[in-house]
Amino acid sequence: MASPIRILTAVPICDGHDSAINTINLEFIRHGIEVIYLGYHRSVGDIVRAAIQEDVRAIGISSYNGGHVEFFAEVVDLLRKRGADDIKVFGGGGGTITQKDAAAMKRKGVDEIFFAGTSLEEMVKFVHQRYGKSRKKRERPKSPDMELARKLTEIEEAYAKSKRPTPNAQRPMSKSATRVIGFTGPGGAGKTTLIDELVLRFLNKDRQSRVAILSHDPSVIGEGALLGDRATMINSQDDRVFMRSMATRGQAGGLSPATESCLNLLAHSGFDYVIIETVGTGQEALPFRRQLVDQTILVMNPDYGARLQLQKIVMLDVADIVVVNKTDLERAKAALLEIEQRLTQNKRKQQIVATVAKRHRDAGVDELYDLITQDGAAARPPRRERK
Ligand code: B12
Ligand SMILES: Nc1nc2c(ncn2[C@@H]2O[C@H](COP(=O)(O)OP(=O)(O)OP(=O)(O)O)[C@@H](O)[C@H]2O)c(=O)[nH]1
Ligand SMILES: [Mg+2]
Fold first, then answer.
1. What's the gap in Å between 17 CA and the centre of ligand 1?
2. Is the CB of 186 inside a 6 Å radius of any atom of ligand 1?
């Protein structure tokens, strides 16, 4: 089976009109397209970097606040400069883009502009027809990120075609200097928000390091997927971060069939850290088997139900660190106590950290960062003594 078409969508800088693109994204994913949604108020640089890292076929831009002729042209130009002009650009913006503007935009290299009144069906058809064919191999990738991005695509495509690993993918996970950290936990617990806050610390505290993120979201029945983590991960849109969004493509358990091979490649690509996020998981999930990661972090939401539910969460037995996020919520105190008691029964050296990931400079996230980087972790007293 062929791999789904991957498209990046975004709304330009100084523009908050995201309602149209949200509707279009949904229609795309229902028709087998994987959409990496970057969000609104996005710069040309962020859009092009994301498109290259995600190795998409095309970028769909929805623009309402003016400046579209220049903005679209800048995206096309930067793609060209980066040696990625095989990534195409299309978009729309209702009545704000006139026929005359659209003609100018096409002359500057934009593939297509859709006007008010176009049906969603027409847009889906366009994407399938224009971007559904296989691409030529890039002669010489202009940057290591571009080369890495294309290799990740090749791995995913090999799995989609044969459901079997490629020779490259079969290579067992061997040790490298890169630290691989796995984040898992129930849907909406705050994994993505937390990772983005940690990345900010990685970037600020060590001016040299590079981080890779492998982020998962579920595929829908129509085999498309909305890969929306970039829209939340504002800090991670940085040249020192290589981020790749993966759809589960029919595999249960929180990861994709190609995850292990992609992770293997990333772990041998010179990053200091590789962070992997599973989709929101259930009670029985154990996504990181076969020593896939060096450290496992379970992110919990204080609203897991009653104490009894904790007995059923298998990951609580194996996680190295349990993060109780959203400790700004009312139930957090009780949750912390209950989870701490549950971990005591395991008689393993598991750490528990309380965080509010949506708050900047949160002390709990600092503590988690220290634990991960092992900076002074031994010197810190246990949580209870500090509060
Ligand atoms: C809804 C809306 C809002 C909502 C936005 C909600 C949201 N989260 O998106 C709210 C009320 C918040 C809002 C606010 C503002 N808005 Co307003 N808004 C509109 C409105 C009424 C509709 C836009 C829309 O979503 N249409 C629905 C889509 C599905 O249909 P469509 O636009 O026809 O698009 C078609 C195609 O172009 C295509 N398409 C669109 N994008 C893409 C992308 C891709 C990839 C593809 C393939 C296709 C495609 O899909 C559609 C298919 O038929 C327009 C007026 C209008 N009638 O167009 C003004 C309009 C865009 N807004 C306008 C303005 C000025 C503002 C504000 C600055 C107002 C203010 N002074 O505060 C703010 C700015 C907000 C911000 N942060 O950017 C102006 C822009 C004028 C300009 N460019 O010169 C407009 C044109 C209204 C006007 N006539 O003055 N707005
Ligand atoms: N109250 C509160 N909300 C938070 C906190 N951290 C994250 N959130 C919110 O929780 C929602 C989900 O956050 P995400 O980071 O997307 O959660 P996730 O675990 O990655 O979600 P999935 O990947 O869909 O499973 C968002 O609206 C966040 O703003 C927090 O510490 N407190
Ligand atoms: Mg997430």
1. 5
2. no
Collapsing DSSP states into helix, strand and coil, what is residue 138? coil
Atom of ligand 2 nearest to the CA of 232: 16
Instruction: Find the distance separating the first CA and the last CA of the chain, reported in whole Å.
Output: 55
List the structure tokens of 345.
């029964």
- CB count within 10 Å of CB 141 equals 18
Rounded percentage of the chain residues whose pLDDT exceeds 70: 92
pLDDT for 260: 92
Whether 232 lines ligand 2, by a CB cut-off of 6 Å, is: yes
Per-residue pLDDT at 163: 61
Q: Which residue has the higher pLDDT, 306 or 261?
A: 261
Contact indicator for 232, 197 with CB cutoff of 8 Å: no
Q: What is the CA radius of gyration of the chain?
A: 22
The answer, yes or no, to whether any atom of ligand 1 lies below 6 A from the CB of 112, is no
Which ranges of the chain would DSSP assign to H, the alpha helix?
A: 19-30, 44-54, 68-81, 99-107, 120-131, 144-162, 167-170, 191-205, 229-232, 259-267, 307-312, 315-318, 332-346, 363-373, 383-386
